[in-house]
Amino acid sequence: ERNQADVSEAKSGRTDLIFLIRFRHCCLLRNQRCVLAYLYDRLLRIRALRWEYGSVLPNTIQFHMSAEEVEWFNRYKKSLATYMRSVGGEEGLDLTQDIKPPKSLYIEVRCLRDYGEFEIDDGTTVLLKKNSQHFLPRWKCEQLIRQGVLEHILS
């Protein structure tokens, strides 16, 4: 407001205020850049939270977010879900599944309950009976691990 008042006076003939007006304007632009950099950093951190914690944030983290940040998180979550459904056929592709590449393509699993025959891509079938152990492709087992049929045996 003070700058605008000085601009009005400078237009009426007080040229000594031009340097002061220019200095204040540069300060305002610098403050604006700092605020925008801070907000952009917050946005990147909130986006990283979606990849780290999944679609539901813990209350301890959500407590420190403003209502606008929570709204932005929810919109980003929906946008990412829509994109993952559109890629990868009928089931979609879960991009958040393996953030770090797996060390091996095959894993050792133990069957927790009787499931029956399970076909692998090369055409072989494996009989999944309770307490049996198998060495199967990781990507083929992940759904059964989530359903509680198989358990990943860590060495």
Automatic annotation (TrEMBL):
Keyword presence, Transmembrane helix: no
GINS subunit domain span: 16-87
Keyword annotations of the record: DNA replication, Nucleus
Subcellular location: Nucleus
Pfam family of the protein (one): PSF1_C
GO annotation, cellular component aspect: GINS complex
GO biological process assignments: DNA strand elongation involved in mitotic DNA replication
Ranges of residues in domain DNA replication complex GINS protein PSF1 C-terminal: 103-154
Quaternary structure and partners: Component of the GINS complex.
Reported function: Required for correct functioning of the GINS complex, a complex that plays an essential role in the initiation of DNA replication, and progression of DNA replication forks. GINS complex seems to bind preferentially to single-stranded DNA.
Name this protein carries in UniProt: DNA replication complex GINS protein PSF1
